[in-house]
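Bumping with the actual sequence this time:
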Amino acid sequence: MSKIDEVRSDMVKAMKAGEKNTKDTLSLLLAALKNKAIDKRSDLTPEEEIQVVLKEIKQTKETLELTPADRNDILEECRHRLAVLEQYAPKMMDADEIETIISATLAELGIDAPTGKDKGRIMKTLMPKVKGKADGKLVNELLTKHMN
């Protein structure tokens, strides 16, 4: 079952249950998935579907960060949207798993004490290994710790 079918099915369930916020979030996700498929002019691969979901999550987190603290309505809506979207995202790696991959990548490249000059080369090798499985910002922070 593709993500589009899964989201559509869950959206119908949310409508029947009268969960307007969940239905709205799923509607936005469904639209994003369909738009990506239209742009591609073919069905999405599972990896592409995951990328769309992760992009929606990232945009929602950015909205959450930029919203003033006194706008509880928007904050609550974003939190609910994140909870719904994260059901469709793959499980993300935790810091320990990322550290293991960073260490393996450093060993693979033969770098004992990484410096700022090495960072680009390391990230170029590291990111394809964790793409879609780990938050890029967290990967960057953990790699920076290795450099200090």
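The tokens above came from a reply further down the thread. Residues 20-40 form the longest helix (21 residues).
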